[in-house]
Amino acid sequence: MNRFKLGGILNWIGELFVSIKVGWFLAVQSLRRSSKGTTALIIFIMILTFLNLIVVSGILLGLIAGSFEQFREGYSGDIIITAATGRDYIENSPALVSFLRNHPDVQAISPRYSASVSVLGTLNRLPKKNEQPNRSGGRLVGLDPVSEEEVTGFSRFVVQGEPLAQDDSGYILIGANLLKKYSTFADANIPGLVFLDGVDVGSRVRVTLSQKEGPPIVKDFIVKGVVKSKVDEISTRIFTTDRELKRILPINQEQYQEIAIKADHARVSVLVSDIREFMKDYSVRIQTSEEAIPSFLRDIETTMGMLGNAISSIALVVASITVFIVVFINAVTKRKFIGIMKGIGINPLAIELSYIFQALFYGIVGSAVGLVLTFGFLKPYFDMNPINFPFSDGILVATPEGAAIRVIILLVVTFFAGYIPAKIIVRKNTLDSILGR
Q: For residues 150 and 262, is the Cβ–Cβ distance under 8 A?
């Protein structure tokens, strides 16, 4: 009994092998004799479908990915350390800074002081009755210009005026979104959003730092420059040197509020573990740049991914219908020929396979050309020339793993688009097919 079963399996495998060979031969001959224009048009449709699968969703995700990259490069570094919830500063931060400066995985660090302040933009007159003062609130950040440059390249954000120097005294940089002249939201008339009017490079402003106990600390500064970035933590803040801010802080002058760390990306997880071990006896918030990303950007990323998948699904449906129609018409016009092949003993499976091979040919060639266009031209182009959106520099997000998944999806859809119409025609009665009935 087992011999009969084994023999039957071997016979089935042999017939399948023969059907594949015959189907391949028929597919090659059909493609050779088909219209070159029609073949090129179908392949072009498959290329567009593949690009739709990768490029559309890739650009939508790239809008947010660009924000993530700018956040890391311009503000947080690879790791950002901030004060724990309910704390005004990072505990044991002088010792932590020393530890980081001597850690082999740390490339550069930027310790920052910061405090909430209000800025008065008009010093030469009092506001009129029922007139709001030319005042805005923000975060005053004290940084070491040299250290900050090593981590974020901060000087590139100065769009007007000059960057800070280490020995500067009495100067600040103001974020563009705090100034009516430079903010992209100045004409939006958003309730509660207040801008400094008439403040520009060279203006004198008054900074007020409130204390929990005692009178507020007031100091006048000259605006040395305007900083602008698509990262809110830059465009909505005020910057001075760490020495300057340290002098006006009432308490905890040696304790930092932020530490941005630039490190080897492959070693970030190890470095985070080492920092946690070093700070195990203190309350502190340690985050990688990915963890520090604002949650609303994560929500937008999810929405963009869903939108991209929806658009790609429509393209898949269009491509599958196109291949279905082409294969079906091809099979219908050759119905008599199919009947004759069945009549002389060619396995119907071989005929079905011939049409499947033709459909897969369109899918494979279209995917191959699409891959070359994506990774050879489009991705390098968008990396060098990001799309200038108001909130990010959009790039094209495309990975080999993601492209491989989309190739498989496209080929599976193409397989069924070729198999179903071939099955419909081939299963018709042989005599009816020969006679055209």
A: yes
* Gap between the Cα atoms of 123 and 142, Å rounded: 23
Q: Alpha-carbon Rg of the chain, whole angstroms?
A: 33
Cβ-contact 184, 177 below 8 angstroms: yes
The pLDDT value given to residue 354: 84
Q: How far apart (Å, rounded) are the C-alpha atoms in residues 198 and 206? A: 14
- Residue 130, pLDDT > 70, answer no
How is residue 244 written in tokens?
């300057």
Helix, coil or strand: residue 205 = strand
Handedness of CA 330, 333, 335, 340 (dihedral sign): negative
Q: Which two tokens stand for residue 422?
A: 């071939």
Please state, in angstroms and as integers, the Cα–Cα distance from residue 30 to each residue in 123, 327, 354, following that order: 85, 11, 9
Q: How far apart are CA 120 and CA 123, in angstroms?
A: 7
273 pLDDT higher than 90: yes
User: Strand, coil or helix: what is 8?
Assistant: helix
- SS3 label, residue 341: helix
Helix, strand, or coil (residue 201):
coil
Q: How does strand 204-209 pair with strand 106-120?
A: antiparallel
Which tokens in the block code for residue 108?
């550069």
Give the DSSP H/E element, type plus range, for residue 241.
strand 237-241
Please determine, for residue 239, whether its predicted confidence score (pLDDT) is greater than 90: yes
Under 8 Å between Cβ of 164 and 240: yes
- Strand boundaries in 32-102, DSSP class E: 79-83
Three-state SS at 358: helix
- Residues 204, 223: Cα–Cα separation, whole Å: 6
262 within 8 A of 80, measured Cβ to Cβ = no
CA distance 142 to 355: 70
Dist CA 42 CA 362 (whole Å): 7
- Model pLDDT, residue 436: 55
Which of 239, 421, 211 shows the shortest CA–CA distance to 320? 421
Is 414 within 8 Å of 320 (Cβ atoms)?
yes
Structure tokens at 246: 């340290």
Tell me the pTM.
0.74
d(CA 27, CA 227): 64
